[in-house]
Fold each of these.
Amino acid sequence: MQASQATVTENPRHPDNIVIVGGGAGGLELACKLGRQFGRSRVTLIDCRLSHIWKPSLHEVAAGTLDIHQEGLSYQMLAHDNGFTFVYGPLTALDAEARRLSVAAVRNDAGEVMIPQRELTYACLCIAVGSVSNYFGVPGAREHTISLNATEDAERFRLKMLELLTMAEMRKETGHEAGVDIVIIGGGATGVELAAELREASGVYADYGFRRLDPGRDVRITLLEGAPRILAPLPERVSSAAIRLLAKRHVTVVAGCRVTDIRANSVTDAEGVTRPADICVWAAGIKAPELLATLGLPTNKAGQLEVTGHLTIKGFADIYAIGDCAACPNAEGGLVPPRAQAAHQQADYLFEVLQHRFAGKPAPAHPYVYRDYGSLVSIGQQTTVGSLMGSLKGLSWFVEGFYARIMYMSLHLMHHRAILGTLRTAVLALGRFLVKRTTALVKLH
Ligand SMILES: Cc1cc2nc3c(=O)[nH]c(=O)nc-3n(C[C@H](O)[C@H](O)[C@H](O)COP(=O)(O)OP(=O)(O)OC[C@H]3O[C@@H](n4cnc5c(N)ncnc54)[C@H](O)[C@@H]3O)c2cc1C
């Protein structure tokens, strides 16, 4: 039966309430921490999806080494367990003067309204809606590439790759030459991690039934990067180590390559070289969601919300923004980079600010300061490379191998700890370790 299409007004049960929009790396951690302390009448989380997967894991979802049905955490469960209210649907409009926002109706596949449009009022608001792909106007990029910005994209990539592997296997069975060409555009952490994960996964897929395919020869992975080297923002040593590890895994890396045109089955660069691409991934850049420019709040050129050092939106003392969607100044005069560690730190800072507010105390005087603890890039399931920042400014340590891998995995566990608590995180980690030993190493259906 179709629900009423009338707008429903959800009145806050507490006059000094907070609404958080976006349950990702930053917003979900904030909602869980606040919910545990102040309860569901005061804390509301809105997200346009029903379950949460930590975004830095999406390359594993794409490669099939992480199963979304095992990894995804339901927002309703998290709301129940952490004591916040969950509202399902996308934020579509904001009336900052009236402190009111609109969440669009949720429809089923047939277009019928399942949940009507809702209006919510807030005393303070935190926007944490993350980022989307920036195609920089490259012709064909939007239409012919898959990005890794959302779980659906990563899952779409996985299914398409399975389909291509099956078709290649069938062609080989009938005596034809066949293979799969995967082109990844963007040699940042996302592109590098995906290339390495795919190479390892292609070997596992071959073991599980695609026996006619030689993964190193028939699954051809090419990584294109516009800058002179991959992982350009990281120290040169990290970049060289990644190139070496990718070469060992038969991934072709082409740096200084500016893509100018993408078609259904090919990618062309500024030099006029056209490469075959059965499947193409766009990992070349991100920008803020376009919705932000429609909210009547100040945005920068990249569409991010302009915030002060205290994470309030300029000119709006009761609206905060954290994570990728916030243009937050850092100590060097630039902006805090769009990274999970920044979103995590900002959620911690805002938790402290709101604890003061809800206790009727003045907000802490100190602004948010971004601490860069370094960057780690996963190269498949066994190894990681990266640099760790020392406590002295400018000092960094190169790390590689199993130790770096453990540190990389601990970042994911820290996120789970913030939303599930220590004991449940430990049980979940053990459970997943055991499940991995009793199920296929890649998702085959
Ligand atoms: C493949 C990959 C690997 C990465 N690896 C690393 C890494 O190793 N280290 C690192 O520091 N960073 C990494 N990043 C970057 C990191 O994931 C992001 O910086 C981080 O997730 C940003 O957190 P956030 O809370 O701002 O947004 P997100 O985590 O993206 O969450 C945004 C949330 O908002 C919701 N949302 C969006 N629009 C709306 C709307 N209109 N209404 C309601 N809800 C909405 C989304 O559903 C989502 O839940 C990686 C990113 C990718 C894609």
Amino acid sequence: MSKRTNDTVVERLYVLDGGSIELDKSSMTFGHDPGQKVRVPTPIYLIKTRDDFVLFDTGWYPQAIPILESMGLKPAIDQSRVLPGVLQSLGLDVRDISKIILSHLHADHAGGIQYFPDAELIVQKDEYSYALHPHSFSQLAYLRSAIDFPSFKWRLIDGDQEIMPGLTVVLANGHTPGLQALIVELPEAGTIILASDSCYVKRNIEEEVIPGIVWNPTLALHSITKLKTLAKLLNGTVYPNHDIEFWDSLRKSPDHYR
Ligand SMILES: [Zn+2]
């Protein structure tokens, strides 16, 4: 991996455990392996920058856990795996977080927004508007009570954008209308592309199979190839978001990537 030593302000990347649920394997890879069950982890990423802490996604909406249970999804999510509890293991409080980059607003990514009235919430404009007015087939994934905080400090962006040196969002939509991935440039580990749900599992990347849950399949495929192209050009690695085997291989908090 390439080393970036010049202008990144990113110092560390922590992978926090946001619990897991069980899904049919065909949810991970469109049309593949129906009838098999798989554990689906929910990572929450924390980035320590020179001046503060930034979250990439906020994990499950705790109020949704009974719904997950009633759907037979066997949630393994306790208070230590949702915000604010998940930060406490690092001795951090919600007030230590100045910015939250939201990949998209599904209930397993936007669940902690409620705890951050003072942080900047960075999301794509198309995602924000769709999340409040989804089509019927997407309604189950967006829970309005998790995201409808109009007085919070939303920063709606439109497309690819550098948030700060070393942290850049790129549009990777298809799973949802405004999904954004995050490119993290670390001083020693090099470039990591956090794909969020544009790539659920490694197989989405390696075989260019789209995830089983998509708003627009063609865009979903374009986003996979876009992130692969960026990884090649930047000499980086794409991190799939809900891959149990990949998850097991990751360095977990309090350990971290530098
Ligand atoms: Zn997800």
